Amino acid sequence: MIEGVNPAWMDFSGSMPQAKTEHVTKKMLDIPYGPHKLQTLDIYYPENGEGPFPVIVNVHGGGFTHCDKRDFHLYPTLFALERGFAVAAVNYRLSPKVRYPAHLADVMRALNFLGEHAEEYRLDAQNAFLWGTSAGGNLVLHAGCVEGMNGLIKHTLRIGAVAALCPAADLEKLSKAPNLRIAFALFLLRSAIFGPFPSKAALENSKPESFFSGGIAPVYLQHGENDPVIPLQQMRALAGKLSVLLPGEDFVFDVIAGARHAGDGPDYFMPEHILPILAFFERHIKA
Predict the structure, then answer these.
(1) CA angle 4, 45, 58 (to 5 degrees)
(2) What is the CATH number of domain 10-283?
(3) Distance between CA 14 and CA 75 in Å, rounded?
(4) What's the pLDDT tens digit per position in 124-140?
(5) What gap in Å lies between CA 161 and CA 131, rounded to an integer?
(6) Residue 55 and residue 117 in contact, taking contact as beta carbons nearer than 8 Å
(7) pLDDT in tens, 136-181
């Protein structure tokens, strides 16, 4: 057990830590938003109130190839239930069975679904917030852009803010890690995501920054100082671009001292790194 993690919310007994949600009495599971078996989402509700609730849409990481809406990526947003947010955890199709941007198309489809059915599921469509980790960070940064890829953004939700945790924001650089072993593994991962010979256009369009010029919702960018997968230097460059677009309280760049990539240590599970993101969301709730 990692010290500081709520044992009622996380199960570390298996090979992949799983979020435990038995304590959440109000929830709707495996709601289909598309025909594929992975095009489903879960909605968790606060114990108090009838809604409509502001909603955090949680998009899991896993290199676009694995992980799930109920694994450890869900854990941080469970704190949001205690602060009056609902949480919608989204699954999406995975590589190598699909190629990028199919994952993004699924997230957009889920957002469209939540916007269209907000009243039915007691959600406040004017106050949706996006939370994504690693691969999920790439997807939520895209979804936060006013201009999306190939017109994918059609949802009726108002995106109040985006939290991107150690996001895979530049997939073209995946194979350029300083460690050769990691670099080779990431090269294979990139081939699974895009196919063996991705076009320059495909790689360029996978970068959220390619669509920043049309505007983006407020962003809380969180990254580990010692991330071996996505170097801090790469994230500093992204932060520089976001800080120009989002002055003042609309942008936060939070570097966690000594932290590695999400899931490789306790840092992203700690309240001191979760609660500031929720406070950032609360500052961007539209009355």
Answers:
(1) 65
(2) 3.40.50.1820
(3) 16
(4) 999 999 999 999 999 99
(5) 9
(6) no
(7) 999 999 999 986 555 555 668 999 999 999 999 998 876 565 667 7
